[in-house]
Amino acid sequence: MSLFDIAAILVCLAAVFGLLNHRFLKLPHTIGLMVVALAASGAVIAIDAVVPGSHMAQQISGLLARIDFHATVMHGMLSFLLFAGALHVDFLAMADRKWPILTLATVGILTSTFVIGGVLWFVLGLIGLSIPLIWALVFGALISPTDPVAVLGIFKTIDVPSQLEAKVAGESLFNDGVGVVVFAIMVAIAMGGAHAQVGTQDVLMIFLKEAVGGVVLGLAAGYVGYRAMHIIDDYVLEILLSLALVMGTYAIAMKLHMSGPIAMVVAGLFIGNQGAQYAMSKTTREHLFHFWELVDELLNSVLFLLIGLEVLVVSFSFDHVTAALLAIPIALLGRSLGVGIPMAALSIRMTFTQGAIPVLIWGGLRGGIAVALALSLPDNEFKPLILTATYAVVIFSIVVQGLSMKALVERVVPSSS
Predict the structure, then answer these.
(1) Pick from 78, 90, 120: which is nearest to 369 by CA?
(2) What is the pLDDT of residues 104-129, one digit of tens each?
(3) Nearest to 30 by CA among 370, 403, 322, 349
(4) Which terminus of the chain has a smaller tally of CB atoms within 10 A, N or C?
């Protein structure tokens, strides 16, 4: 089966499942797609259980195995999705809240990583599921960052004060880049075991190269794109330039071992604010923004479809399911402390929108990035448990937290009217 055949199947499934959701479930598009895909996956598993000779799940799993989920998300979709998300964010509103955003994206991620990893290690030890602390911290690192794709998708459907929306959007856009760096460091230590030679200086150098390098690369790429758009007025060519900026910059970041996600966010903010205001005509601005909205919706549809179908490739056991159910409240605890501690420290000198903390905690959705990182882990005895726990937290956050966000915002955030 060719790459085109696989892409055709995914797009057709996304269209059919989207139609079923629109007609019957009437859930937000991406959540509805994932729910229908989960239901279809469950139906396939049930058919195999009733008709053992059908091997339907095995055949579909074989098809999904040909799709490298980690490479598809981290080295493909993510660049476009982050750029598209950052393109629509008001930089000035985000800059006014730079300290909460930066603190949540750094101190918050580290706090959450160690809380989740430490508590999971302790709790699993109590029930006889032994997992080394470092591998529990690997799980903490991959599940701590909120997924900007999921977060921004949900907040498009909810009316929240602009200052709170800027805080949520800014944190979700930047913390995944930081989280990926922390994840890489934890995996390096875990794979090295007792012989790991990853010292404080090494960690600092990796962080500086990845995070700071990503910012510098994103600024440089954004400026080059801005100057190119400034000297022309042709919306077709300018859209092509924006595509070249995304693909070229992300490829360079991967080659130079810099943070591609951070570079995309910075470049998207540059083009969406400075570029839109000074380098684009009204016609170009409308066409370019509509183009990236369409790209965002299409890739989101395929991504959430894949999340729903990937349940067929996750190996389940009773012990793993128990660990996965425990991981959900533990992840919420880590998120609560990762948000609550930095916000409490900042509140000494700053004021925040009423209800900001519960919205930030409950709105910390996990998505395709966490699943992709879990799937990228090297094969070992702890990977199945980590993957199952990751999948449980992702499904809970998107379905339960995502669908209840509107009610939470209406309850805890004062109406602007």
Answers:
(1) 78
(2) 999 999 999 999 999 999 999 999 88
(3) 403
(4) C
Helix or strand run (H / E) with residue 79: helix 78-87
* Residues 117-122: contacts with CB under 8 Å, at least 24 apart: 117/141, 119/330, 119/333, 119/334, 120/323, 120/326, 120/327, 120/330, 120/389
CATH topology of domain 69-412: Na+/H+ antiporter like fold (1.20.1530)
Supply 69's token pair. 């989920």
* Local structure of 302: helix, strand or coil: helix
Distances from the Cα of 415 to the Cα of 333, 405, 408, 409, angstroms: 28, 15, 12, 9
Q: Could you tell me if 1 and 289 are in contact, meaning their C-beta atoms sit under 8 angstroms apart?
A: no
Give the pLDDT band (50/70/90) at residue 415.
confident
pTM of the complete model: 0.92
pLDDT number for residue 61:
82
d(C-alpha 260, C-alpha 82), whole Å: 10
Structure tokens at 42: 């469950």
Angle 354-364-296 from CA coordinates, rounded to 5°:
110
Place of tokens 């797609």: 33
User: pLDDT digits over 219-250, tens only?
Assistant: 999 999 999 999 999 999 999 999 999 999 99
Q: Where in the chain is the domain with CATH 1.20.1530.20?
A: 69-412
User: What tokens does 179 get?
Assistant: 């989280």
**Which pair of tokens denotes residue 214?**
């990503």
pLDDT of amino acid 353:
85
> Distance between CA 242 and CA 295 in Å, rounded?
12
